[in-house]
Amino acid sequence: MSPELLGPGVLVEQEIFGQMEQIWTLYLRLLGEVASLRVGRGVDMERAIETQASRASEINGLRKELEESNRKARRLDEDLRERDYAMA
Asked: For the chain, what is the radius of gyration of the CA atoms?
């Protein structure tokens, strides 16, 4: 079913998800630059990688939560449309 048929709530969710994808990409790029700068300044490489990995893991968890929320919103929207159709 196309997003247009699912309603404005799904379109908003998809737009937010798209923005989160862009933010995620920019964040990882910046995190890589920060790690490189830390290494260049003599900060322990292992520590820089650990910091990057823990933050990336946290972001992945948030990303999965957003994806699940998007799926739930789509299911709720579909259920509401089916209920409305049955009542009509």
From this structure: 20
- CB count, 10 Å around CB of 58? 10
How many Cβ atoms sit within 10 Å of the Cβ of residue 11? 12
Q: How far apart are CA 58 and CA 1, in angstroms?
A: 32
The token duo for 2 is 């196309």
Domain boundaries, the chain: 38-87
**Which among 65, 62, 66, 81 is positioned nearest to 3, based on CA atoms?**
81
> Any idea which residue has 């739930």 for tokens?
72
Q: pTM of the entire structure?
A: 0.43
20-42 pLDDT, tens digit per residue, is 888 888 888 888 887 777 776 66
CA dist 41 → 29, 33, 36, 49, 55 (Å): 19, 12, 9, 14, 21
